[in-house]
Amino acid sequence: MKVSRYTRTLHFLCLDLEQSHLYINEIENLLSIPMYRMPPGEIMCVNKKQSNRILLVDYKQLPDLFQAFPNLAVLWKNFEIILFNVEKPLQTQEVIRFGHLKGLFYCSDTKPKIAEGITRIINGENWLPRKITSQLLFYYRNIVNISTCPITVDLTIRELQVIRCLQTGASNIQIAEDLFISEFTVKSHLYQIFRKLAVKNRVQAIAWANQNLIS
Questions:
Q1: Could you read off the pLDDT of 200-210 as tens digits, one per residue?
Q2: Residues 173, 51: Cα–Cα separation, whole Å
Q3: Where are the alpha helices (DSSP H) in 98-153?
Q4: What are phi and psi of 126, to 5 degrees?
């Protein structure tokens, strides 16, 4: 496959450099360009000024990767991300967790299709399923729609705690456990949050928080 001369490098995120990754090897052969193996710890040493790196991530390995490196989502923000081996459609909050997501491939996608998509990404395009593109478009439209919302909103301390939990992607049950309150109380707080922010759902509330609350 023809690849432009633009100096972008492709890296596969893996826990064990000694392990044989036959699946990756086959894709690499189809691409006819090198794919460097990168352990998570090496991401911390990457120069932030080098913005031409693409990181290939096996979605099925994410639990092990996050267990070994809990701050991985912060570290890979300097990369363009390609996910593969995705088993089912992702929720919007999980999609945006990957930051600069350029490509997504499901388990059902063939190796030639993945190689074609990666080649397009290397040449500057995106390769995302239509549903994912629609989710991202809806999410960022919400951000634009609420960008004029006043930052000073009369939220209680508990409501701020709940909205912070929302930003992490926590469910109502998880929020209840984290804050030592009942799930009914969580729902009551969410109702008040939505009303005060003039938003309709969790996605819009999170978009408001990302826009207006200091990290």
A1: 899 889 888 88
A2: 39
A3: 111-122, 130-146
A4: -105, 155
Rounded CA separation 74/215 (Å):
13
What burial class does residue 52 get, using C-beta atoms within 10 Å of its C-beta: 0-12 exposed, 13-18 middle, 19+ buried?
Answer: exposed
How many other CB atoms are found less than 10 A from the CB of residue 98? 22
Q: Smallest Cα–Cα separation from 80: which of 52, 48, 46?
A: 52
Q: Residues near 175 by Cβ (< 8 Å), separated by ≥ 6?
A: 162, 165, 166, 181, 186
Q: Tokens 């299709």 identify what position?
A: 113
Calpha distance 129→107 (Å, rounded): 13
Pairing relation of β-strands 101-106 and 9-13?
A: unpaired
Domains of the chain listed by start with CATH number:
9-136 (3.40.50.2300), 147-212 (1.10.10.10)
Between 7 and 107, the higher pLDDT residue: 107
The string of pLDDT tens digits covering residues 132-176 is 999 888 877 766 555 555 556 788 989 999 999 998 888 999 999
